[in-house]
């Protein structure tokens, strides 16, 4: 069995299902708008297991390769980028404090203490 994610015209995952690949390729009929793309429960393909609300991105430089496609959570802030070796979002600066009470301040693109 394999897992498949349906993305809408904005590349947002709207549905995830498990199915036999032969069924998906030869017998499955879905007339609603969108595209079905295989995902992996272990994240072994496309970086992460696709979740509803995730974004499908193409031609991303991550996971140690110059160009790949991934499923990733929604971008938390406009200044954050996809990690070079992971399909995760990272802030433009690392956390510089040991305080447990901090938050990301997008206007200054920095961490702030509460």
Average pLDDT figure: 89
Report the C-alpha radius of gyration, rounded: 17 Å
Tell me the β content.
35-45%
Read across the widest sheet, the strand sequence of neighbours is 2-1-3
SSE run: EEHEEEEEEE
The helicity comes to under 10%
Helix/strand structural class: mainly beta
Overall spatial form: elongated
Low-confidence stretches: none
Q: Terminal Cα separation, in Å?
A: 47 Å
Strands, count:
9
For the sheet with most strands, the description reads:
3 strands, antiparallel
The number of helical segments is: 1
Brief summary:
By secondary structure, the protein is mainly β. Helix content is 5%, strand content 40%. It contains 1 helix and 9 strands.
